[in-house]
Protein backbone atom coordinates (compact mmCIF):
# COMPACT_ATOMS: atom_id res chain seq x y z
CA UNK A 1 0.00 0.00 0.00
CA UNK A 2 1.12 3.56 -0.67
CA UNK A 3 0.26 5.95 2.12
CA UNK A 4 -0.34 9.53 1.00
CA UNK A 5 -0.42 12.08 3.83
CA UNK A 6 -2.72 14.95 2.87
CA UNK A 7 -3.50 18.35 4.37
CA UNK A 8 -5.92 20.94 3.00
CA UNK A 9 -6.74 24.59 3.61
CA UNK A 10 -10.17 25.99 2.85
CA UNK A 11 -12.19 29.17 3.11
CA UNK A 12 -15.11 27.56 4.93
CA UNK A 13 -16.37 24.44 6.68
CA UNK A 14 -17.76 22.32 3.83
CA UNK A 15 -17.03 21.69 0.14
CA UNK A 16 -19.41 22.95 -2.49
CA UNK A 17 -20.69 25.91 -0.51
CA UNK A 18 -17.08 26.88 0.24
CA UNK A 19 -13.77 26.22 -1.48
CA UNK A 20 -10.62 24.23 -0.93
CA UNK A 21 -7.92 26.87 -1.36
CA UNK A 22 -4.86 24.66 -1.30
CA UNK A 23 -3.72 21.18 -0.43
CA UNK A 24 -0.51 19.27 -0.06
CA UNK A 25 0.30 15.59 -0.30
CA UNK A 26 3.40 13.62 0.65
CA UNK A 27 4.14 10.01 -0.23
CA UNK A 28 5.06 8.41 3.08
CA UNK A 29 8.46 6.80 2.66
CA UNK A 30 11.80 7.25 4.40
CA UNK A 31 12.79 10.18 2.17
CA UNK A 32 9.47 12.08 2.10
CA UNK A 33 10.70 13.35 -1.25
CA UNK A 34 7.58 13.00 -3.38
CA UNK A 35 5.14 15.85 -2.84
CA UNK A 36 2.22 17.54 -4.55
CA UNK A 37 1.00 21.08 -3.96
CA UNK A 38 -2.17 22.50 -5.43
CA UNK A 39 -3.63 25.99 -5.20
CA UNK A 40 -7.23 26.13 -6.42
CA UNK A 41 -9.38 29.00 -7.60
CA UNK A 42 -12.53 29.30 -5.45
CA UNK A 43 -15.63 27.47 -6.67
CA UNK A 44 -18.06 29.63 -4.71
CA UNK A 45 -18.65 33.29 -4.00
CA UNK A 46 -19.05 32.40 -0.33
CA UNK A 47 -16.10 32.47 2.03
CA UNK A 48 -15.45 33.09 5.71
CA UNK A 49 -12.64 35.64 6.10
CA UNK A 50 -11.33 34.02 9.31
CA UNK A 51 -11.17 30.60 7.65
CA UNK A 52 -9.43 32.00 4.58
CA UNK A 53 -6.93 33.87 6.76
CA UNK A 54 -5.56 30.56 8.07
CA UNK A 55 -4.27 29.78 4.56
CA UNK A 56 -2.27 33.00 4.46
CA UNK A 57 -3.89 34.10 1.20
CA UNK A 58 -6.26 36.94 0.43
CA UNK A 59 -9.44 36.41 -1.55
CA UNK A 60 -7.91 38.39 -4.41
CA UNK A 61 -4.87 36.08 -4.48
CA UNK A 62 -7.04 32.95 -4.53
CA UNK A 63 -8.99 34.24 -7.52
CA UNK A 64 -5.77 33.96 -9.55
CA UNK A 65 -5.14 30.31 -8.58
CA UNK A 66 -5.54 27.45 -11.05
CA UNK A 67 -8.84 26.00 -12.16
CA UNK A 68 -9.85 23.26 -9.68
CA UNK A 69 -10.59 20.71 -12.41
CA UNK A 70 -7.02 20.99 -13.71
CA UNK A 71 -5.44 20.80 -10.24
CA UNK A 72 -7.51 17.75 -9.29
CA UNK A 73 -6.73 16.05 -12.60
CA UNK A 74 -3.03 16.76 -12.06
CA UNK A 75 -3.26 15.34 -8.53
CA UNK A 76 -4.90 12.15 -9.82
CA UNK A 77 -2.06 11.77 -12.33
CA UNK A 78 0.54 12.40 -9.59
CA UNK A 79 -1.05 9.65 -7.49
CA UNK A 80 -1.00 7.29 -10.46
CA UNK A 81 2.64 8.12 -11.27
CA UNK A 82 3.80 8.05 -7.64
CA UNK A 83 1.98 5.02 -6.24
CA UNK A 84 2.96 1.64 -7.50
CA UNK A 85 0.39 0.10 -5.15
CA UNK A 86 -3.07 1.03 -3.85
CA UNK A 87 -3.05 4.64 -2.56
CA UNK A 88 -4.20 5.09 1.03
CA UNK A 89 -5.40 8.53 2.14
CA UNK A 90 -4.24 9.52 5.63
CA UNK A 91 -4.36 12.87 7.38
CA UNK A 92 -4.33 14.56 10.76
CA UNK A 93 -8.03 15.41 10.51
CA UNK A 94 -9.42 13.04 7.92
CA UNK A 95 -13.01 14.05 8.64
CA UNK A 96 -12.22 17.50 7.28
CA UNK A 97 -9.44 16.87 4.76
CA UNK A 98 -11.08 13.77 3.25
CA UNK A 99 -14.41 15.56 2.87
CA UNK A 100 -12.87 18.18 0.58
CA UNK A 101 -10.53 15.88 -1.39
CA UNK A 102 -13.26 13.27 -1.96
CA UNK A 103 -15.82 15.88 -3.01
CA UNK A 104 -13.41 17.60 -5.40
CA UNK A 105 -12.35 14.30 -6.99
CA UNK A 106 -15.92 13.16 -7.57
CA UNK A 107 -17.14 16.58 -8.64
CA UNK A 108 -14.32 17.31 -11.10
CA UNK A 109 -13.18 13.87 -12.31
CA UNK A 110 -16.04 11.51 -11.44
CA UNK A 111 -13.84 9.18 -9.37
CA UNK A 112 -11.61 9.19 -6.31
CA UNK A 113 -8.31 7.30 -6.71
CA UNK A 114 -8.31 6.70 -2.94
CA UNK A 115 -11.60 4.83 -3.13
CA UNK A 116 -14.15 5.27 -0.37
CA UNK A 117 -12.14 5.27 2.85
CA UNK A 118 -9.47 7.21 4.68
CA UNK A 119 -7.23 6.90 7.72
CA UNK A 120 -6.89 9.25 10.68
CA UNK A 121 -3.38 9.80 12.04
CA UNK A 122 -4.58 11.10 15.41
CA UNK A 123 -6.80 8.09 16.02
CA UNK A 124 -3.97 5.76 15.07
CA UNK A 125 -1.70 7.37 17.68
CA UNK A 126 -4.42 7.23 20.34
CA UNK A 127 -4.68 3.49 19.67
CA UNK A 128 -0.92 3.02 19.94
CA UNK A 129 -0.92 4.87 23.26
CA UNK A 130 -4.21 3.29 24.34
CA UNK A 131 -5.30 6.72 25.52
CA UNK A 132 -7.92 8.87 23.78
CA UNK A 133 -6.44 12.01 25.31
CA UNK A 134 -2.99 11.64 23.69
CA UNK A 135 -1.86 13.63 20.67
CA UNK A 136 0.88 12.80 18.17
CA UNK A 137 1.78 16.40 17.35
CA UNK A 138 5.01 16.34 19.37
CA UNK A 139 6.31 13.72 16.90
CA UNK A 140 6.43 16.22 14.03
CA UNK A 141 9.81 17.59 12.98
CA UNK A 142 8.60 20.06 10.35
CA UNK A 143 6.84 23.06 11.86
CA UNK A 144 3.07 23.26 11.42
CA UNK A 145 2.85 26.41 9.25
CA UNK A 146 -0.52 25.95 7.49
CA UNK A 147 1.39 25.50 4.27
CA UNK A 148 -0.28 22.19 3.44
CA UNK A 149 2.91 20.53 2.16
CA UNK A 150 4.75 21.45 5.37
CA UNK A 151 1.85 20.20 7.46
CA UNK A 152 1.53 16.95 5.51
CA UNK A 153 5.31 16.42 5.78
CA UNK A 154 5.23 16.96 9.55
CA UNK A 155 2.38 14.48 9.87
CA UNK A 156 4.25 11.97 7.68
CA UNK A 157 7.28 12.39 9.95
CA UNK A 158 5.06 11.57 12.91
CA UNK A 159 3.83 8.41 11.16
CA UNK A 160 7.42 7.34 10.45
CA UNK A 161 8.25 7.90 14.13
CA UNK A 162 5.29 5.74 15.15
CA UNK A 163 6.73 2.97 13.01
CA UNK A 164 10.29 3.33 14.33
CA UNK A 165 9.72 4.10 17.99
CA UNK A 166 6.47 2.31 18.74
CA UNK A 167 6.80 -0.68 16.42
CA UNK A 168 3.75 0.21 14.33
CA UNK A 169 3.28 -2.51 11.75
CA UNK A 170 2.90 -0.58 8.54
CA UNK A 171 4.40 -1.08 5.10
CA UNK A 172 5.40 1.79 2.84
UniProtKB/TrEMBL annotation:
Gene3D superfamilies in the record: Ribonuclease H-like superfamily/Ribonuclease H
Domain of life: Bacteria
Alphabetical list of SMART domains matching this protein: EXOIII (SM00479)
Domain Exonuclease: 2-168
Sections of the chain in a coiled coil: none
Annotated protein name in UniProt: 3'-5' exoribonuclease domain-containing protein
Organism of provenance: Emticicia soli
Amino acid sequence: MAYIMVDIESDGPIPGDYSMISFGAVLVNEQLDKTFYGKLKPISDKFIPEALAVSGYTREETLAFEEPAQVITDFAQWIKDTCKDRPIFISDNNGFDWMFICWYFHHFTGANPFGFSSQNLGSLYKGIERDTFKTFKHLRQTAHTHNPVDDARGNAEALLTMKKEFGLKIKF
